[in-house]
C-alpha cells in the first residue's frame, strides 16, 4: 500500500464506492492529505476483513463532513466468499455488525468450552453452512476434516455472536484471543478503545507470556506526527473502560508502524517477535 498512489487515484477517478479494510478507513479518516474534497464523490463504503468500530466510522464521517453509508460484510475464501452483509439501511444500534445471513445460508454459534450451540448474545465460534461453502482443500484431507465438520458446517475460526434480530457481530479470531488467568480477552476490543485517543494513528494488541497469568495484553501504538502520548496515559484510558483482567498489564510499546498483511490484517506473529525483542 502506497499512500500517495491511493490519494492520486481518489483525485483522478473520483470514486462513488470504496471497498476498504479498517486500517485503510483509518488512513482516510486521519491522513492530513486526504481532504473532504478528495472524498466528495464517495457516497458509500463497504468494510471487510475486520470489524470497523463506531468510533472509526465516526472519524471517517467527520472527515467527509456529511452522512455516508458505511456497510460491513463477512466472508472467507472458503465461503466463496460472502456469507453475511448489512442491509442498505439499518438501525444505528447495530453499528459494528457484519450483517445478516445471505439467502440460503445458515449459521450457528458453538461454545469454545463445551461445543454446545449457543443462543443470542453469547460469544462462541461461528460455524456456517450453505451452497457457497467449499467442498474442501485440494490435496489436503487433514485440513478439510478440521475445517468442514458435521452436517457440512464450515468452522470459521472467528469468535462471534448474534442478536435477536439475526445481526451477527465478530469479536475476534479464536487463535488471537489472549488468555489471562483463564479469561479470554479480545485484542480487537482493546484496539478499538485505544483508537478513541486522538493522538493515536494505529494500534495493535497482542498477548505476552506471564508466569502467573499465562498471558497479559500489551499494546503496540503508533502516535500521530506531532502528537505526544506516554504509556501511563494509554493504560489509564483503558483501565477506566474495562474489567481488571483486560487491562494493559503487559505494557505499552510505541512503534513506527503496525505490521499488516496485504488484506490489512494485523500480523500478530510479528508483534510477538517485537514483544520478545523488548523482553530481551
Automatic annotation (TrEMBL):
Pfam families: AMP-binding, AMP-binding_C. GO terms for biological process: fatty-acyl-CoA biosynthetic process. GO terms for cellular component: peroxisome. The keyword Nucleotide-binding does not apply. Keywords: Peroxisome. InterPro entries: AMP-bd_C (IPR025110), AMP-bd_C_sf (IPR045851), AMP-dep_synth/lig_dom (IPR000873). Residues 189-265 form the AMP-binding enzyme C-terminal domain. Residues 5-138 form the AMP-dependent synthetase/ligase domain. It is found in: Peroxisome. One of its GO terms (molecular function) is long-chain fatty acid-CoA ligase activity. Belongs to the ATP-dependent AMP-binding enzyme family. PANTHER family: LONG-CHAIN-FATTY-ACID--COA LIGASE (PTHR24096), LUCIFERIN 4-MONOOXYGENASE (PTHR24096:SF394). This is Uncharacterized protein. It comes from Anopheles quadriannulatus.
